[in-house]
Amino acid sequence: MAAIVVGIFGMTPGAVGAQCTGSVCIDVHTDPLTGKVIIDATKIIPGSTPAPVAKPKPVKKPVPKVAPKPTVKRTVNPTPRPYVRHVPYVYHPPKPKPAKTIAQPAVAAVNLADQISQLLPLRNIYVQPAQGAVASIPTYFWTDTNSIFNTATTILGVGVGVTLNPSFTWNFGDGSLITVTEPGAPLPDKTVAHTYTRAGRYTVTLTVSWLGSWVAGGYSYPVVGGAIVQNYSTLVTVLPAPTKFGN
Fold first, then answer.
1. Angle at 113 between CA 112 and CA 115, to 5 degrees
2. Strand pairing of 133-134 and 228-239?
3. Domain-embedded: residue 115
4. What are the residue ranges of helices labelled H in 175-221?
5. Terminus-to-terminus CA distance in the chain, angstroms?
């Protein structure tokens, strides 16, 4: 698995996914299957150049054929030529040709990549009264899950902060459910309360969904990849309501 110049300038705000400048790209996303927040960073080393594109070879044009010149016959001169003394031949070695310079290929751009992942902690759910709920009397629920998740790190020289906010969906096992933004707490807090109408045993489930944003270089971006979902459950025994006797 998700971007800012190591000086953190020139980022384009408002884009979704990876955010890049000429040096670093950062991407922050979730992995719902593993419950992790993943920060990816890639940096292109300054001074490197992409490999050159090969130029096409020139096409040689065909040389037109020229008709051969007619042969001219020479008449032999019967008069002998006078003797001429020849100068002795002096050997001159050929001059060495300059060595050809071989062009070195350009160095391809080099990428540095890093990844940081953090797993959201698992928590518990609690019920009050702890010894058993009673029909027709409110039962209170809460979780020790944090009401916000914050993490900050530095990756490839860039500071990145991630903030996730949860939503809590409670299913009380009797067909009733509520969704809140706070984890709840024991009395006197009454954020998550439910009154059962009948005695019995009920499986209570809590679904926590995390979504949020990340910041770098003074700009904020949404964390993509989908919500991280955590599920918890507990068994609640509901006792019959107390019997009232009249006069």
1. 155
2. parallel
3. yes
4. none
5. 73
CATH number for the domain harbouring residue 158: 2.60.40.10
Q: Percentage of the chain surpassing pLDDT 70?
A: 62
Q: Write the single-letter amino acid at 75.
A: T
Q: What are 116's strand-pairing partners?
A: 39
Q: Which residues constitute the domain of residue 43?
A: 19-50+107-239
Containing H/E element for 29? strand 24-31
| Rounded Cα gap, residues 215 and 71, in angstroms | 91
Q: Is residue 14 part of a domain?
A: no
247 lies in some domain: no
- What is the structure's pLDDT at 137? 94
More confident residue, 159 or 4: 159
Domain assignment present for residue 2? The answer is no
For residues 142 and 193, give the distance between their C-alpha atoms in angstroms, rounded to a whole number: 9
pLDDT digits (tens, 9 = 90+) for 156-172: 888 889 999 999 999 99
Rounded to whole angstroms, the Cα distance separating 52 from 63 reads 33
Task: Identify the CA nearest to 113 among candidates 40, 215, 198.
Answer: 40
Calpha distance 187→11 (Å, rounded): 48
Q: Give tens-digit pLDDT for 20-34.
A: 765 788 888 888 888
What single letter denotes the amino acid at residue 26? I
Q: Three-class SS of residue 92?
A: coil
What's the rounded Cα separation, in Å, for the pair 164 and 157? 23
Count of alpha carbons within 13 angstroms of residue 85, beta-carbon side:
1
Q: How many folded domains does the chain comprise?
A: 1
Nearest to 6 by CA among 47, 45, 50, 40: 45
What residue has token string 């705000």?
Answer: 13
Contact 13, 226 (CB under 8 A): no
